[in-house]
Write a structure and sequence with these properties.
homodimer; 6-stranded antiparallel sheet; 8-stranded parallel sheet; alpha/beta; 25 strands
Chain lengths: 603, 603
């Protein structure tokens, strides 16, 4: 049978290749540039050509293939030889249950085929083992990015013409699906290595080796050590850090070419939502009306609540999609709360299925107007009833973002009228008059809650967080930002005693997010942190590490307070005080984090 | 109070005029020609300018204002003096319960203001009275028409450029809403007078006078007599003539500017459907899917059944609109049957509300394909259940029109599978193999059922009818056709022993149906028989008279057969034998009808 089997396989490969080239159109990036490959790659893909040519002078100095440990603070440029690599043992310090990461880098003056990084298990002298299934590796691939606005003041605004911005490849997506990679001469390639120390681990030093190979054999060996401290970080779902990254299931449906809310869609969503869960994601983003943000993302948010105006003029609301989404998220363990957008969308227009005309229709009305108050009143009454039936009422928040205070007061009135028990959230400006009304209040980085107010809210079971958006030049999470700025968010929240961090886009992908992170508004990468194929990123990993830092600070504060260890508390607060966004021009996030990490990792 | 009241009225008129001119845009006809008035007039309106100029020579002979009886067979030209008018007593012969009609005409060489026709009650020497509420009058207004195709072979085909056809004003809409009319010099104007003889009336001669006046006084008096025979015509709802004129409620919603299926829409529909009922209309036209005829009319038929694909993939069908429509029609007495279009629409595409994507979607599938058979199977099963709940199952027909036999056989299979009891109708080609399957079978004029086959079907409770469409040059019901051809349909059905007549369009109005009956396909008037404002027409009145003729023939045949009066039967069949469409070039419909009327109106 064997020859026949082989022949069939070869034929199948041939046919599938033919099929692919015959039917698949070529993809294009958001700006209309052909990608040279079928659209929406999930597994193998080719990066866009590098707009920057390698400098021969720099590569002239590089004798052979360079292999070594780099820094997770650095995005190694594709066209440059990596500087400052070390071949010495890299020692990472971790709590039990913590994830720690490293970057190993290859810079090659010549073409390489089949480059791969192999990490074996880490062992301790006492026979302890961190097995390979706790060690994650992925190539740090290159994606097209741009830069801040020309005046250096953030990344907001319309960018219809990408050529006005400096476009470069930047190391961000972490590709765990590609097992080996060909490297062109005069390029660098990093590998992200993350060790998730098991909870039950004995403290001590665990050592192992990273083997860097190409098709012809070994390129280098890098010794790795993880120093496990006798401290325990809880599992992400038990973290108290409140991470709220808005999920866009519609982008996943489009990229995976599946029908929204089909079983295929649910299956495609899971890996992305697991990334969010493992980073400590707490909120489920639910769109309860059509286009809450007026379709500002490439894939707009459709309503998860079905709005129907019956021919007799009555309204009917169906929650089948909402339920499917929430149940899927809850089943993954993302079950703290559901944030529902939005009663006050950016465009006060509401789409519904109109039975009489058998068509989709919109009505426009503002809070305080009769039509608005009537329809939303009915919707909220029906919604409250449904949520109570599902046992979700206590976890659900009617969510608003960035609206004038007067509008919000009117909206609150309607919500309270429909059900006084509804919880409410706001991501927007700090209005002291609203603080007692909002169960989840998120203000931008530059607005400062009083610490006593935050503590009071926490004691009442209310959540207080901050967000960054396109506004901040630094810290931020654009694809070109220094990776440490993502981690900085958690440290800053710890310093301010805030409960957590919010960013408006976990995965509101652009057209070809693996290839080009630029969009027609905002600086590149503003709209997503994770990549197709369930790929994480340098940004997302460091953001998660910030969440870990916040948890560690919380645990240490509790312990020091409990034990009355005032000097330790003082030391801790001192390093935290460096997390002040106004100093980020002079002192890099990486620098202040290095100091702070040392403090929370004291034995 | 009086002066104040007057002032207010004047102001109100001023304001309403201002309001009208300020907000109302000018209407345009289907071909984009401005109508010189607000769109969609319901009460007063101005006809389009006459493309034909009066011939001064003809008018020179007309001394003063000419007033007299005309013929209901003639469409009097607006720009010509009416010929052959009579001032003598016009005697109409009627059965009890019958409607009989006349035209009085004014031709004026000079401008006239406030022209009106007043008909008093008709009285008999024995003191019997036909009171004024049984006498209907209306101006026969002028509407733009075109003509047959240039080769004289019917009126089918696309007519994007109206200028290729001779466009003239033609007398057709009967305007009972305008009480008096100004007439320009050198124009003619007819008035339609219809007497509906009450059922209980004593036989005998009833006489009265039609006074023709203008603002300055009497223009003429015309003596009118109705000779009531001692025979009874039943009320229209008891007629056995099966009249099926497809109703388009969507055209009424658009013209009246009301939301489809609102109470305002239902109220607007009633007068039109009463016209249909009073002409003996038997079938309710129901569209059970989106665009059964691929939107061929100016106002396409939307689905009266709401098709919903739920997010879990199951189908849901809602009948609220269907029920509202059927209940309204049944409440008017149009309750013999419901014809449901269409499982095999002209474009095999089906629109539904897709919950998953919150949008309207279409699927395309043909009978015999898995998707088609599955979805229609579910729809029909649900529909049958609903119809049985409503007690309508026995009256409902799944209706098809003009499809290949093989497709219909496949479709029948699906219907039978969903519910073997479903009744089925077809308007299309005569397939002998289908005759036993079809409860309502309508074939085009040129196809001839065997008389025995029709009798057999009738004995089984099945209906057999014929239709005309754009195909026939004569007889037909275009706005330019000789009025008698509309009546001819009933006589022909009587001759062929058919149960009735079908035309595909009662009121699929063009953009401005009162002004311009031309459309971008087919000869003018093909798409409607009645006019906005609940206005009847010369065509519609004569069509109704054909239905009366059919009923009268049916009654006489029954009586003669019962009484064994063979010579009378022979005489009757002899006059009926003249209703052969192939002779209509030589002998006008008016001529053969004149003879036939005499026969059925023998004392």
């Amino acid at each position: 049978m064997k020859p026949l089997f082989r022949l069939c396989t070869a034929l199948a490969v041939l046919l599938s290749t033919f099929h692919l080239s015959a039917v698949a159109q070529e993809g294009v990036t958001h700006s209309g540039r052909p990608t040279g490959q079928p659209p929406y790659p999930l597994t193998d893909y080719r990066e866009l050509p590098n707009p920057v040519t390698p400098d021969p002078a720099l590569w002239h100095e590089v004798g052979g293939v360079r292999v070594g440990w780099g820094s997770t603070d650095v995005r190694y440029a594709k066209e440059r030889p990596a500087e400052g690599l070390s071949q010495k043992t890299l020692t990472l310090t971790a709590w039990r249950g913590e994830r720690v990461s490293a970057q190993a880098v290859v810079s090659t003056p010549r073409d390489l085929r089949g480059v791969r990084f192999r990490v074996g298990e880490l062992t301790s002298p006492k026979g302890g083992r961190i097995t390979a299934d706790h060690i994650f590796t992925g190539f740090v691939r290159y994606v097209m990015t741009d830069e801040l606005n020309k005046d250096g003041r953030g990344g907001c605004g319309y960018r219809p013409d990408n050529s006005l911005f400096d476009s470069t490849l930047v190391a961000d997506p972490i590709d765990h699906l590609t097992l080996s990679l060909a490297m062109d001469a005069q390029t660098s390639q990093a590998c992200w290595i993350r060790v998730w120390v098991p909870s039950g681990m004995a403290a001590g030093r665990y050592t192992g080796t990273v083997r860097v190979e190409d098709a012809d054999g070994l390129l280098g060996e890098l010794p790795l050590a993880v120093e496990v401290l006798d401290r325990e970080l809880p599992q992400p779902r038990d973290w108290k850090f409140h991470l709220d990254l808005w999920q866009n299931p519609y982008a996943v449906a489009r990229y995976h070419r599946v029908e929204p809310w089909s079983e295929e869609h649910i299956a495609a969503l899971r890996p992305y939502m697991e990334l969010y869960r493992d980073a400590g994601g707490k909120s489920v983003t639910a769109s309860i009306m059509h286009k809450p943000w007026n379709g500002q993302t490439h894939d707009y948010f459709e309503s998860m609540v079905t709005w129907v105006k019956r021919v007799d003029g009555t309204w009917y609301f169906d929650y089948a999609i909402f339920d499917k989404w929430v149940e899927m998220m809850f089943s993954l363990g993302i079950d703290k709360q559901i944030n529902c957008y939005s009663m006050v969308p950016w465009k006060l227009t509401y789409r519904y299925f109109d039975q009489a005309t058998n068509s989709m229709r919109d009505f426009s009305s503002a809070p305080g107007e009769e039509l608005y108050d009537k329809v939303w009143g009915e919707m909220l009454t029906s919604f409250a009833e449904h949520l109570k039936q599902k046992g979700w009422f206590e976890k659900t928040l009617i969510s608003m973002d960035e609206r004038p205070e007067e509008v919000m007061q009117r909206t609150l009135h309607i919500i309270r009228k429909a059900d006084p028990g509804f919880k409410i959230s706001l991501a927007g400006v700090l209005h002291e008059s609203l603080a007692d009304e909002l169960d989840d209040y998120c203000v931008s980085l530059n607005m400062k809650f009083k610490k006593e107010e935050i503590e009071k809210r926490r004691a009442e079971g209310r959540v207080t967080t901050f967000y960054t958006s396109c506004t901040e030049p630094r810290p931020n999470t654009f694809t070109f930002c220094p990776p440490a700025e993502c981690e900085w968010m958690g440290w800053y929240a710890a310093r301010e005693r805030l409960d957590g961090y919010l960013r408006w886009a976990l995965n509101s992908w652009v057209l070809e997010p693996l290839l080009d992170s630029r969009f027609h508004t905002w600086a590149a990468g503003d709209t997503y942190l994770i990549y197709p194929g369930g790929r994480t990123s340098v940004r997302f990993e460091r953001l998660m590490e910030g969440a870990q830092a916040w948890e560690k600070v919380r645990i240490l504060r509790e312990e020091y307070t409990r034990k009355g260890n005032k000097s330790a508390l003082k030391r801790l607060e001192k390093v935290l005080s460096a997390f002040d966004e106004t100093t980020l021009v002079e002192r890099s996030a990486a620098e202040v984090i290095r100091v702070a990490r040392r403090e929370v990792n004291r034995r």
